[in-house]
Design a protein that fits this description.
Pfam families: DUF7089 (PF23363). This is ABC transporter substrate-binding protein. The protein is 52% helix and 8% strand. The chain has twelve helices and six strands. The termini are far apart.
Amino acid sequence: MFEARDLPADLASVRDEHAPDAVVLDASSDFETLPGYALDDLATRADALTPTAYDPDWLPADSPEMLQRLASADLVVGMPGDGSVAWTRQTDPAFVVVKPRVEGAPDDFVDFLVAEALVELGRDLPEHFLGFFADAYPDFASAVDADPTTTYQVALAAFDAYRGLHTRDAFESWADDRDRLHDAWRDAGDRLQPRLDDLPSEVARGTTDFADAAELACSAVKHDLDVPTPFGALDTAAYRDHGPQYAVKWAEKLF
């Protein structure tokens, strides 16, 4: 299921700086959440397993099944919305897993995604939005006042913005000594920008639903782009400093 991934020198230096003990793996099959047989394979590569404990009381009763499983005693690695690269620190050492869906993407961009995961590990960010919101998640879900799937998407987007506030300074700093990764980060932002320009009007017309707009807009934070209203309120020092409490207030005012 997994093979060790060779890292070019600049990416290896990111690992050495931010998450020196992390192991980067290629997965042989795609996943949102690793199935049991893959977890068994991962376990043979780890010195120890320590599943993250999420309190079931943090979840509204109608939460999606996968979110309820996350809040169980099970080891859950990867969740819907994680994208092409997933990481976990529930293992010792921590693992970064590259999914086969990256096939066809430019190598520089894939390496940036791996670098992003390593920086997130090094900044000690939560592995999932449930660990970010914790006991504030019921208040956030109540404020969003949408179906459980939409609420999940909006929570994931808000958490993505929070992560971006904590990682983009690292990406910006690579302009001189890791210019290939810096250029991949900047190029991804340049390709995202045209999709942001018309986003508020698309939401108003109903051609883009709110959850999809949240995903796009909040991903812009890590690229240091101009984030459209109403998501620009998440691109602030106040959100970086106050986290879930700020996100709850944002959702209450918005909805």
